[in-house]
Amino acid sequence: MTTIASDTTYPSARHFWLGMAAYIVPTFPVAFVWHLVLFEQRYQALGIYRADPIIPFGLASMIIQAGIFSWVFPRLFPRDRNSILKSGLLFGLAAGLLSWSFTTLAVAAKHPMSSITDYVVLESAFTLVQFLIVGPLMALAHRTSGIDRTMVS
């Protein structure tokens, strides 16, 4: 009689923390410079953001996102079946699209602003830059981790 059992190898804590760093380390400075330096005047002209952003709330949000994305990555891309670049860009596409749906579309739908078009263009470009960087870094952080499910008899 053949039985199917799961020999599950979960990603190591090291890979999880590296994945979190792969998200936070580039995202925080890119977001800070993008929103509060390069395009600060354009965002102020939109009239939707606080004059004095609460940086610790933004960082807390990134930490939560980093934990979720780092936990999800090896479950979507088990083992090294794809190249780091391919799996990273695919992950960046999926995670970026999800992020874009609630940081761009939902915000544009709910908040008054002087130009929905300007907001959508700015945030779409930010999300693209962010996940073009984060996706491959997340794949690199998890390159030897993953969930390995095998059949044993």
Automatic annotation (TrEMBL):
It comes from the Bacteria. This is Uncharacterized protein. Keywords: Membrane, Transmembrane, Transmembrane helix. The chain crosses the membrane at residues 16-37, 57-77, 89-109, 121-141.
